[in-house]
Automatic annotation (TrEMBL), chain A:
UniProt family annotation: Belongs to the WD repeat DCAF13/WDSOF1 family.
A GO term from the CC aspect: small-subunit processome
Chain ranges of the Sof1-like protein domain: 352-438
Organism listed in the record: Bemisia tabaci (Sweetpotato whitefly)
Cellular localization per UniProt: Nucleus, Nucleolus
Name of the protein in its database record: DDB1- and CUL4-associated factor 13
From TrEMBL, chain B:
Primary subcellular site in the record, as a coarse category: nucleus
Localization, UniProt: Nucleus, Nucleolus
SMART domains recorded: BING4CT, WD40
SUPFAM superfamilies: WD40 repeat-like
Origin superkingdom: Eukaryota
WD repeats: 262-296
Composition bias, Basic and acidic residues: 10-20
Keywords associated with the record: Nucleus, Repeat, rRNA processing, WD repeat
Name this protein carries in UniProt: BING4 C-terminal domain-containing protein
A biological process term (GO) from this entry: maturation of SSU-rRNA from tricistronic rRNA transcript (SSU-rRNA, 5.8S rRNA, LSU-rRNA)
Every BING4 C-terminal domain range: 344-384
Amino acid sequence: MKVKTLVRNPDHYLRETKRDIFKVPRNYDPSLHPFQGPREYTRALNATKLDRVFAKPFVGNLKGHTEGVSALGKHPSRLSVIVSGAYNGEVRIWDLSQQTCLHHLQAHESYVRGLTFDISGEHFISVGDDKTIKTWDVENCGTSKHPANVIISKSVLLGITHHRTENKFATCGEVCQLWDETRNEPIRIFEWNVDSLHNIAFNQIETHVLASCASDRSIILYDSRETGPVRKLVMKLRSNQVVWNPMEAYILSVANEDYNIYSYDTRKFNAPIMIHKDNVGAVTCLDYAPTGKEIVSGSYDRSIRIFPVHKGHSRDVYHTKRMQHVLSVSWSLDNKYICSASDEMNIRIWKARASEKLGVLKPRERDALHYNEMLKSKFAGHPQIRRIARHRQIPKYMFNARNQLREAKEKIKRKEANVRKHSKKGTIPHVPERKKHVVEVQE
Amino acid sequence: MKKFKRSLSRSREDAQKTQKESQNLVNVANVKTGVYKKRFQKWNEKVQWSENFTEKASVLLTEDAGFLEPDEDEISAQISQEAIVNSVDITSATKRFDLDLQFGPYRCEYSRNGRHLLLAGRKGHASGMDWTRKKLHFEMNVMEEIFDISYLHQETMFAAAQSKWVYIYDQTGIELHALKVLNKVLKLEFLPYHFLLCSGSEIGYLSWLDVSVGKMVAQFNTKYGRLNIMTQNPYNAILCCGHARGVVTMWSPNVRTPVAKMLVHEQPVSAVAVDTKGLYMATSDTNRHLKIWDIRMLDGPLQSYFLRSSITNLAFSQKGLLAASLGNIAEVYLDPCTKEVKHPYLRHSFTSPISNINFCPFEDVLGVGHGRGFSSLLIPGMYK
């Protein structure tokens, strides 16, 4: 007879010293772990609920401006620095980590229209309604209060954007002008029979390409190497801001007056690739996350919404009782925070992910959160979990406006269907939603 | 380090071998459409990855499973416990012991990790111990009959079904609760993943009590009379009750009527057991039959045995061995579900009738409660 029984050496299961961690032996045999599915579901449900419990996106408030804040500019390399410009021409430089104002200066006589840092981050450039372009030294503006350089423009200035790698910037207003930082005259002027251009943006990857929004409801593309504009897209309503996707060179998004955000592929400009709907007021400002996967929008309906680029509806909405029309938003370059500037003189700092824990995470904590993330994504389609994850408490005016909009949309749809029903077959074509908002493309 | 490397590389070779032999892969060549082809290719990748992973992880399982190989001229059932104890190592030999107690017959229950043991004599004696270290947690006499005893989710609390009500005690034997809603209970079961204490009563009531909040989840009259044969299906936490009409009924707290009923025997059912994977159910009757059923299909019997005497208790081990008590004899069968067995794997006889039989999880040990106390038997090769 040969016999042996299972023996466990206690040394393998006890910790060696008091400071050692407890070892937990695991047997992955599924028969020892029944109810795997139901247990994971419960965990996913709890994780989703906790996600909503901990959703406290508001981080802080920067106060100091005495007029509505119209423009924000983010520093290209330092996360804690932003500049803001107000209706009364005041510019403030903020330290985000301390939530304090570092310097403030009376930059323009009225209305700061645009702010941008240069590539080194040592200077920032501001444009205002007084037709001046002023360059400021970030370090010295606390002491001197005078700009490092002033350019007086011949035409009105409404926006500014800086080239990603070269010492060039572009302004817009009556015309689009391209400037060299070392010269006082524009190096190039682009025109396309437009009254005024109110926003302009340099592409971050194809750095010669510019996009601009005009008051004739159009979006115009320029190439800074050529002498004229390249292409123009006319929409049904005016666009307020244009931003380029920082990761995909050919994608741009515009904030439109018709409450929607449209993302276009510049290679196929005749229809948007995605329409982001959810706002109940004109969208005034936009910014991409540095990952290029999400868009934040500020709206006239006093809210900030965050959209995944591939989804038509927002994943989150931020609002407070006191926040008025949002005029500028910026997504921080570490992909963690969002700054919003609004009409009632405040700049607010928000978390990009509402329930994210700030600060250093211990490895086990991080693992647990990662596990919860995986569970949430695994069970995201389950009705109860989806309901909890989607639910947002929104102000009554927004709720009512949303219902009204929905009703109006249904009415139009119903009417169109009725007309089609009583018309000759084929006379009233089905126009896809994505084709409805584009009037024409001019080359 | 060198040794570890070698073992890893070996396991990789093994993994490659299993890749070829793996039964779980889909033959992509037979799939016609491109979409499904891609989907199944992804599936295959996942299967291969997980199989390779388990192969690699098996390096971490340092213990070898026990075994018992009889010589050519003997059969394993002839091998006595004394012979096994004399041939195994000292640590394993200490796992074979007898407790001579006077308040029998005894019921026994192991905790879920196999570390602790709970004993209850019908005449009121209850005790809990860390049986591997032989360390007594408590010992007391409740001065009442105890019909059944069950650990709750941890070894720190247990429930005892006494002559009138069910009581909950802690590890030191202090009474925490008297559950007067559970009246005249004969059998207790604890559902660890639902935190439900289930009981079957003398007057035919089945109850599910949520021990986390102390609320009664459901209480039904089964209308089958005395409920002294009850077990849970560990795979789906359904209760299986054996009845005097030869019927096994299965119950869930969500439905007032049995979710399934099986006529398994012509005589009264004497014992029911469900294996840990929830595949098979073993039932026995008072007329010496033992039948194995496919519990998923409610089909069978897969196997039907006729024994020398009638079975009073049945228990499945984690590896699928079946233990049965026939009067004062305890027998263990090796894999009686998938093939017909001729002889028991091991057999041991006692001087008094066996009242309860239970495998210890994660160990090669079978606990037997009988009229004169408790015995712990060595059954090699029971747990991997």
